[in-house]
Amino acid sequence: MKIVCAALLAALVFLFFSPVLSFDFVNWDDDVYVYDNPSIRGFEPANLRRWFTRPQVRLYVPATMMSYAADYALHGNRAGGFHATNLALHLANSLLAFWILFSVSGNAWASFLGALLFALHPAQIEPVAWISERKSLLSAFFSLGAFVLFMRPPGRAGLERALSPALLAVLCLLA
After folding, report:
1. Radius of gyration of the chain (CA)
2. DSSP character at residue 56
3. Average pLDDT over residues 85-106
């Protein structure tokens, strides 16, 4: 039942958000973050140094900048590729929310409904549809991932159990 609920959740999230795949860049700040940003054109040492030492449009978001560079390497300056990454991140976040809810409740349908509410809530539209808001999706991904790792059953090595969520929490700050 858990697999059916997770698959149904993934299908509904994709169906609801798939129109973003045909969206273009927006003229608000996609230009300075993405399509007019020379620092995402590659993973050269100068770009890495810039991402980790200087704010981008007054925000310190090196993980976001690296994800834009990866998208640029895969898709060039085509907005659909950047939107596909945002959709994939939101889909992963929705499945992580389902996993967390199921781990706590043990009820697949209740977890499905809770994760569906998370996934389709109107507050999620902007981060998925607006490329420059990827920082929110990455932050949620690392936060939810840290929570999943922290919830693992006891018995794991103490240092590994402590460091896995801590590492993801640090990545969340870099998103």
Report:
1. 17
2. B
3. 96
Retrieve residue 20's tokens.
Answer: 């973003």
Residue 125 tokens, joined = 């539209």
What pTM was estimated for this model as a whole?
0.88
* Cα 39 from Cα 161, distance rounded (Å): 36
Residue-wise pLDDT for 83-93, tens only, equals 999 999 999 99
Q: d(Cα 131, Cα 29) in Å, to the nearest integer?
A: 9
d(CA 73, CA 94): 26
3-state secondary structure labels for all residues of 97-128: HHHHHHHHHCCHHHHHHHHHHHHHCHHHHHHH
Is 142 within 8 Å of 34 (Cβ atoms)?
Answer: no
Query: What are the strands, taking DSSP E only, across the chain?
Result: none
The secondary structure of the chain in percent helix, strand, coil, rounded to multiples of 5, reads: 80, 0, 20
Where does the pLDDT of residue 56 fall: very low under 50, low under 70, confident under 90, or very high at 90 and above? confident
Instruction: Report d(CA 113, CA 120) in Å as an integer.
Output: 10
Q: Which two tokens stand for residue 59?
A: 């925000």
